[in-house]
Amino acid sequence: MRVTVVGAGIVGLATADALVRRGHDVLVLEAHRPMGARSAGASRIFRLAHGDPELVAAAVEARGLWDAWSERAGRPLVGDEGAIVSGPRVDDWAAAMAAAGAAHEVGAPPSGTLGRTDGSVLHDPAGGALDLAGAGRLLQEALRDHLRPGRVVDLDELEADAIVLTAGAGTAELAAQVGVTVPDELCHHVRFAFRFRTARSSVPPAHIDDATYQHRTPEGHWAIGGHLPDAVTTTAANTLDEVRHRSREALTAHVADRLPELEPDPVDEVTCTPTAGEGDGVRTARVGNVHALWGGNLAKFAPLLGERLAEAVAGDHVAHAIGPPDDATDHGR
């Protein structure tokens, strides 16, 4: 079967890789550069911890597939430092993990936790930082004969038995051509990296609280992203420079208040343009030979989404959606 995958972010590459391994004739088209846009940056947080048991179960399945990618890469692509969740989500997320049968603990922060936390935390021992850039290199090498630069404007011009839309911000416009409505209001998101004041002998657990998400980067810095209101970040109302300024103010203040182990000035930043209001969760649709996928915080599920899309293409059915469709509160990346 001839399959065209539109978009070479981590989910598009995972899908193409799964299709190639199943023996299909695959072409991946990317308008800019592979692993750019929403897959930009070297790292993300992997976690089983979510507010919905279905998301937890999907993350458990995805973790096994990340481990398989690690074997292919010859090195770990998921850190073993664990992850913690603090703040008002602890009880609900712990209940979701318990319902899914995922290992977790609620109590004092584990040894090595960075900064100050208030109250009990949810400890997810299977969590840690994803080496997203390393996964991207692995997949691009496997797909080097299948990747092509190209901007898709009209789906009717693609000569393929099946089309898979994993084009991030471009998915809404393309999916509309077959009558599928995908949320299209975008926002600016900026994540900053900070240096440690002194060398650390161990990697702190990744941390999601009510205002930020934090994790170690492959460069040895500490990445922090914040959750500003959509009204402050939407691209229609605010420029990237405005959002960058607001984000920098908020996150440097957070460092000064709660993270004395870090230097106060950022040394790096990553920007992307996600869909406004999207939390965790994956939506899918199929019309004719066109399969579309969209959602929020997809990187941790990438190998699972690739497998499910490949199975849907081969079986001519709709890939399984994951989690609640409209959860604007579950923002931890």
From TrEMBL:
Gene3D superfamilies: D-Amino Acid Oxidase, subunit A, domain 2 (3.30.9.10), FAD/NAD(P)-binding domain (3.50.50.60)
Pfam family, one: DAO
Keywords: FAD, Flavoprotein, Oxidoreductase
InterPro entries xref list: FAD-dep_OxRdtase, FAD/NAD-bd_sf, MTOX
Any one Gene Ontology molecular-function term assigned to this protein's record: oxidoreductase activity
E.C. code: 1.-.-.-
Name of the protein: FAD-binding oxidoreductase
Organism this protein belongs to: Actinomycetospora aurantiaca
Boundaries of every FAD dependent oxidoreductase domain copy: 2-311
Cofactor: FAD
Origin organism lineage: Bacteria, Bacillati, Actinomycetota, Actinomycetes, Pseudonocardiales
Domain of life of the source: Bacteria
UniProt cross-references to SUPFAM superfamilies, sorted A to Z: FAD/NAD(P)-binding domain
